[in-house]
Amino acid sequence: MLNHQHKFSVAYLAIACLGMCLVATEAQTTSVSTVPNGYFTLTIPAGFTTSSSISALSFPLQGIATAPGQMIGVITGLTANTITNSNAGWTAAQLSVPATPYLLQITSGTAAGRTFLLSTNTANTATTVTLDPNDSIKTPDLTALGIVVGTDTYQIIPADTISGIFGTPATTGVVGGAGSSANADLITVFTSGWNVYYYDTNANHWLRLAQPHTQGDNIVIRPDSGVIFNRFGNTALTITVAGQVPSIARQALVANNGVTLFSNSWPVDQTLTTSNIQNLPGWLSGASASVADTVVLFNSVTGWRIYYYNGTHWIWSGPTHAISDSIAIPAGSIGYITKQGTASGYGVLTQALPYSL
Fold first, then answer.
1. To which H or E segment does residue 260 belong?
2. Where exactly are the structural domains of the chain?
3. Which of 45, 194, 252, 314 is the most exposed place for a label (fewest CB within 10 A)?
4. CA–CA separation, 119 vs 158, rounded Å?
C-alpha cells in the first residue's frame, strides 16, 4: 500500500499477481517474479464551488490489449512511419478506432521504451500499423531508431483518453456544465499547446473550452504525460484505473526548447535525482533558474515550485536555494520541463525501471 499526502493523494496502489505484491518508494527496489496487474486509485480533493482544487495527475499503469491478433510480437518490417508484423493477424481497422486508440511500445533493442500513438486516420491492416501524424512529426523516421527487423519486439497497449479516464457526471461524479463551463470541472491537457476541456451536459461530450468547441472525448493522455485537473465539485472525486505495471525502461521525448509536460510513469515515487532529467541530452545546468533548464513540480502546501540543476545538485529556485535532490515526484503525478535551448526537435529522456521484475 502506497499513501502520499499532497494536493491529490494516491489513496492506494494494490498490485495483485499470484498473491504477490509490489511495494516500492523512491529509490527502493523490490523484486517480483512476473509482471503484476492491479489497480491505481487517485483521490482528487473537493473544490469550493466558486474556486477549485488543483491536481496534477498521471496514470502509471498500462492497459492490456484484448483485440485479435498478436498484441506482442516481432517487428518484421519498417518504414518512416509504419511498423509491420507479417504474422500479426490483426483485424483491419480495429486498432484505428478513435474512441479506442492504441499505443505501440518497442520492447527490445536500442529503442526499447519508445512508445508511439497509432493513427486513427490511417486504418491498420492485418499486418501493418501507421503512426499518428503528431508522432510522425516528433519521430521523422522510425528506421533511424536502430530497430532491428526480425529481432526487435513490440507490445500494443490501449491508450488512456479523457472520456475513458474521467467518464461522465453520471459514471464518475465529475461536475459538468449545461452549455457552459461555469463551475464545471476542468481538465488541462498539453499536446502542442495547452488545451482545456469540460463536460457539457447538453452535448453529452467533453468539449474544448476555447473556440472551436471540438469534442475532447478521444483526446489521448499518453503514459509519459498527464493532466491538470481543476475540481469545482464540493466532494472529493475518486478515479480508479486498472492495468499492468510497466515492465521495461522508458524513453520519452522532451522538446529541445520550450515546455514539455512529463509524468512519473511508474507506480512508485521518484526523486529529482532518480528521474534522470539532469542527464537529458543538451541539458543546461547553471547557477540559477534564469540561466538553466528547469523542472516545475506541484505540491499541495507550496504549490508550483521551480528547480534547476547546478551541475552537482538539484536546487530549489526559492529564497533558501535548498539542495533538492531528494524532492519527490510522487507516483501518479506530473511536472513540466522547460528547456532554454534554441534547437528544434526532441531529446530522449531515458529512465531505468525503478524496481525489478
1. strand 258-263
2. 72-158, 250-351
3. 194
4. 13
Q: What angle do CA 160, 13, 294 make, to 5 degrees?
A: 65
Question: 184 is written with which cell numbers?
Answer: 464545471
Q: Which of 232, 113, 112 is closest to 184 using CA atoms?
A: 232
Q: Please state, in angstroms and as integers, the Cα–Cα distance from residue 205 to each residue in 168, 171, 201, 227, following that order.
A: 8, 13, 7, 18
Nearest to 187 by CA among 178, 198, 177: 198
For residue 258 the three cell numbers come to: 520550450
Give every CB contact of residue 190 below 8 A, 6+ residues apart in sequence.
225, 259, 260, 261, 336
CA distance 26 to 329: 8
pTM for the structure as a whole: 0.88
Beta bridge partners of 306: 296
Instruction: Give the SS3 label for residue 82.
Output: strand
Q: Phi and psi for 336 in degrees, rounded to 5?
A: -140, 150
Dist CA 243 CA 40 (whole Å): 8
Give whole-number Cα distances, 320 to 236, 307, 317, in Å: 34, 12, 8
